[in-house]
Amino acid sequence: MIDLSKVDAGLWREVVESCGDIRHCFTCSTCVAGCPAAEASPPLFVRDLVRKVLLGLSESLLEDETPWLCVTCSACEEMCPMGVKPFEICLAVRRWQARNDESFIPASVAEIFETGHTQPVDRVREKRRAVGLEEVPPTIARFPEMLEKFREMLRETDLVKNNEFMFKG
Amino acid sequence: MKYGLFLGCNVPAVRPDVERAIRLSMPRLGAEMADLPGSVCCPAFGSFPSADETASLAVSAWNFSIAEDLGVPMVTQCGSCYSSLRMALERLHGDDALREKVQGLLRGKAGREFRGTAEVRHITDVLFNDIGAERIRGSLEFPLDGMSAVVQYPCHTLYPSEIVGFEESSGRPRMLRGLVEALGAEVRPYSRELQCCGGAGGFVKGSFAGASEYAFRKLRALRAETDAGMIVVSCITCLEHMDRMQAELAKKDPAYVPLPVFDYNQLLAVCMGFDPAEVASISTVPREALVERIRGAGR
């Protein structure tokens, strides 16, 4: 039973930012029918995330890890008959979670801050040389002075300002 | 035709043979692939886009500013890079206040300018629409005559079609098929052709059993319904995942015989006669025997 006197009625305004109008969702479940991660256990049911947001169930939403199962294929976005943009809701819920509980912030943001990449592109030199490529690709991995500017830029963002402990370099 | 090759993270680090194949095959078709010096992660959907929208768009705009300086359209093989960049561009064009905020971040500390002229293309779009099947056909030393394949369309190039699409219909894509046919192979349809590989995002990490079963169903259908001798993809995630999942399935079910998986540019480069040790050397399911057959057929 949901006690509607204890819900967070403004939650949807906090979460959805730029998504399509989430209030148009009528739980038809098209977003679930074509979703690979609906086969995970527990499954990702975007329609359930939408209900939680609309009903203002912030506590339950903050414990829900299913948005992180999304494969980002965006088929739901193509199929949704109401233009709700389910994929963008997944990302928006992740961001809301990351703002409200730092343990949701993905480690990859710190990796990108440190190196510009999510993979060690500058530490696979032998592998690259073996296929006839330059040992370090011409990305930021080759330009330390650009990496410093990149970090300077990111230091001005709320994410880095509010979670300085995560970001080295 | 001049383009900027957006490498992303996985291609240069995990499958540099794909990078090599692109760098060798595209110029032979008249497409110059310039470097985008100083480019960073697209950013991947599971990183900044899942944490902070403004920071995420600043990272995207960093990449756009590099391509804008060179005046070239960005071209990427990775489906996730393609979609992340296209969606970011859409967002930046659609919200003046947000764009100005992001422009301010770039200008202030990074000394870079996002003008809004950047263009993002997927490599299959460039191959099919700018270069064309005829020119590809004319570039081959070892065509795939008598061979058959299945294709895996990258979801990120299909959905949402109004932002990322370049096919006439996202429900009936045809370009990758046309590109493989241009190499001389026949492309076999099957019931689960349009099923996502399932390899991107958090599905595999968060629910390995579910993700495996999901992939196995596709792979079993592919084997049961077709006589294809290879799988052709054009996305680093499809490439790695269909390769890996076939090996997993073969471990579980010895009756399953895995098929070689190629990125399209790898197969193209092999057909053009480039050294397989450079353009198609890294995989889980062995490709050597098929590559030898392809190279033998041309003689």
Structure description:
The complex is a heterodimer of chains A (169) and B (299). The longest helix of chain A is centred in the middle third of the chain and has 15 residues, at 86-100. Chain A is an all-alpha fold. Chain A is built from ten helices and no strands. Chain A has two domains: 4-102, Orthogonal Bundle (Fumarate Reductase Iron-sulfur Protein, Chain B, domain 2), CATH 1.10.1060.10; 107-166, no CATH class. Chain B has 299 residues and is of the alpha/beta class. Chain B folds into two domains: 2-122, Up-down Bundle (Glutathione S-transferase Yfyf (Class Pi), Chain A, domain 2), CATH 1.20.1050; 133-297, Rossmann fold (3-Layer(aba) Sandwich). Helices cover 52% and strands 9% of the residues of chain B. Chain B contains 15 helices and eight strands. Chain B has helices spanning 10-14, 16-28, 53-70, 79-94, 96-110, 123-131, 133-137, 161-164, 175-182, 203-206, 208-225, 236-252, 264-272, 276-279, 288-297, and strands spanning 2-5, 32-35, 74-76, 120-122, 148-152, 186-187, 231-233, 261-263. In chain B, helix 12 (236-252) links the parallel strand 7 and strand 8 (261-263). Chain B is globular and about 60 Å long. The two termini of chain B are 32 Å apart. The chains are: A mainly alpha (169), B alpha/beta (299).
